[in-house]
């Protein structure tokens, strides 16, 4: 096993099946991999945030959106050269039945940059102003989240990348506490949607959860008022208007030096029986 696996291209499917030389057991057990930031144990402040974010109910699920593809990269820092407010994000995954930590699950996240662009699909995301229906003022508070979506049968197919960029995308493997960590930037926005991060959980060889992570609007306003976000004008869809937003998707956030620290707990139906 190599000394440092950050940035190494590794097929998620091969990783899960154990065919790759970078096995789950090796990745989680290796002191060098942990030292490199692959799946470090969460510090006390993250543990506190995760404890506050704890829920024991199935996480609201969504379809995967138009810009997902398997980027084949196991890494914790997904920023590349993208500028923005630093966001250190911890995600704890647990099984929805009994809420035990889900170890050896693969968690992928992907989101747009400060200008609303997705890597691998810059042209498409620049021109795409579509999204889920927004909520009218009359029905904003009545929206009901979808509690279980079989994302293997999602209405959106995986994207075939149209460019070679791979920023703000990455995967991590959960540790014994079901936790992964990423370093990224606060996501921007694009027409038709509120600020969000996509997340997908794989257990075994199955996609068991696709959901989205969102942020308090006061914090969105604080971040988006500063460079490099401030030059991106015309935002019209906020959490209250977004057709996918639900309170359970809100990330717990604390200040972290010149950036932010976020934590959320996801409960996945690992055996896909709807429970």
Automatic annotation (TrEMBL):
Gene3D superfamilies reported for this sequence: Aromatic compound dioxygenase (2.60.130.10)
Stretches assigned to coiled coil: none
Short name of any one Pfam family annotated for the protein: Dioxygenase_C
KW Oxidoreductase (keyword) present: yes
Span of domain Intradiol ring-cleavage dioxygenases: 70-124
Keyword line: Dioxygenase, Oxidoreductase, Signal
Highest taxon of the lineage: Bacteria
SUPFAM superfamilies documented for this protein: Aromatic compound dioxygenase
Listed CDD domains: intradiol_dioxygenase_like (cd03457)
InterPro entries in UniProt: Intradiol_dOase_C, Intradiol_dOase_core, TAT_signal
Name of the molecule in the record: Intradiol ring-cleavage dioxygenase
Organism expressing this protein natively: Nonomuraea zeae
């Amino acid at each position: 096993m190599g000394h440092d696996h950050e940035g190494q291209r590794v097929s998620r499917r091969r990783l899960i099946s154990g065919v790759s030389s970078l096995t789950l057991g090796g990745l989680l057990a290796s002191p060098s991999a942990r030292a490199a930031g692959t799946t470090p144990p969460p510090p006390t402040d993250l543990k506190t945030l995760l404890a506050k974010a704890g829920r024991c109910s199935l996480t609201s699920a969504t379809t995967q959106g138009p810009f997902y593809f398997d980027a084949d990269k196991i890494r914790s820092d997904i920023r590349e050269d993208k500028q923005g407010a630093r966001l250190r994000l911890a995600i704890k995954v647990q099984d929805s039945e009994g809420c035990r930590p889900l170890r050896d699950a693969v968690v992928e996240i992907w989101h747009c940059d400060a200008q609303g662009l997705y890597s691998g699909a810059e042209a498409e995301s620049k021109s795409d102003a579509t999204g889920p229906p927004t909520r009218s003022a009359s029905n904003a508070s009545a929206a009901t989240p979808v509690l279980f979506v079989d994302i293997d049968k999602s209405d959106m197919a995986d994207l075939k990348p149209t460019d070679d960029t791979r920023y703000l995308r990455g995967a991590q493997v959960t540790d014994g506490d079901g936790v992964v960590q990423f370093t990224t930037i606060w996501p921007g926005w694009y027409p038709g949607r509120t600020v969000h991060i996509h997340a997908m959980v794989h257990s075994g060889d199955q996609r068991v959860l696709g959901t989205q992570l969102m942020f308090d609007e006061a914090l969105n306003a604080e971040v988006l008022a500063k460079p490099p976000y401030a030059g991106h004008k015309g935002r019209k869809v906020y959490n209250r208007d977004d057709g996918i937003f639900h309170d359970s998707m809100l990330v717990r956030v604390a200040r972290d030096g010149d950036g932010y620290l976020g934590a959320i707990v996801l409960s996945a139906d690992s055996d896909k029986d709807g429970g």
